[in-house]
Amino acid sequence: MFTGIVEELGEVTAVETLDDACRFRLRGPVVTEDAKHGDSIAVNGVCLTVVEHEGDEFTADVMAETLNRSSLGALTVGSRVNLERPMALGARLGGHIVQGHVDGTGEILERKPSDNWELVKISLPADLTRYVVEKGSITVDGISLTVVDAGPDYFTVSLIPTTLALTTLGLKQPGDPVNLEVDVVAKYVERLLGTRGAAQ
């Protein structure tokens, strides 16, 4: 489990395309300081398993399902990525419960800068709109954010200077894809109430 509090801005150092998968090598001095084979690290909000670890770099395999459901397939050598290790038992939950299981992708539609913050508008797939509410939580590229406005096919978030400086959202421009994970609590409540079929 993750919290959506990005630990560092890492970098893709190698990409190996396989028949039905992809192998990434990524640099991240903070997340690799205690990494071991089999550990989980969230990369742009996608939970990946450490296959190899050497120095400040680690390697992870990404299967076709993940490439199709997320924006990881668009990564190239030099791409910057948000990195986060799993939450340690007993640690503070600074963001919200994040599984690292991407529900879909959105696209940066618009950026409106201000003196002390920036409003970013992101497209929202139709099958995810019912899970996104004003002042609710959403994960964008692995970043725990609060929804400012929830529209019929979009949502907006406000980004403080720290988020802009330390994550990929400071770099992405209109047209760029982002990984989205909605609040898992909303999905469980829907399932328990038996409203899944009626809501679609």
TrEMBL record:
It is an enzyme of class 2 (transferase). Lumazine-binding repeats lie at residues 1-96, 97-193. It catalyses: 2 6,7-dimethyl-8-(1-D-ribityl)lumazine + H(+) = 5-amino-6-(D-ribitylamino)uracil + riboflavin. Its EC number is 2.5.1.9. It holds the Pfam family Lum_binding. Pathway: Cofactor biosynthesis; riboflavin biosynthesis; riboflavin from 2-hydroxy-3-oxobutyl phosphate and 5-amino-6-(D-ribitylamino)uracil: step 2/2. One of its GO terms (molecular function) is riboflavin synthase activity. GO terms for biological process: riboflavin biosynthetic process. Transmembrane segments: none annotated. Keywords: Repeat, Riboflavin biosynthesis, Transferase. InterPro entries: ATP_synth_asu-like_sf (IPR023366), Lumazine-bd (IPR001783), Lumazine-bd_dom (IPR026017), Riboflavin_synthase-like_b-brl (IPR017938). It comes from the Bacteria. Residues 1-96, 97-193 form the Lumazine-binding domain. PANTHER family: RIBOFLAVIN SYNTHASE, RIBOFLAVIN SYNTHASE ALPHA CHAIN. Catalyzes the dismutation of two molecules of 6,7-dimethyl-8-ribityllumazine, resulting in the formation of riboflavin and 5-amino-6-(D-ribitylamino)uracil. NCBIfam families: PRK09289.1, PRK13020.1, ribE. Homotrimer. This is Riboflavin synthase. It comes from Streptomyces actuosus.
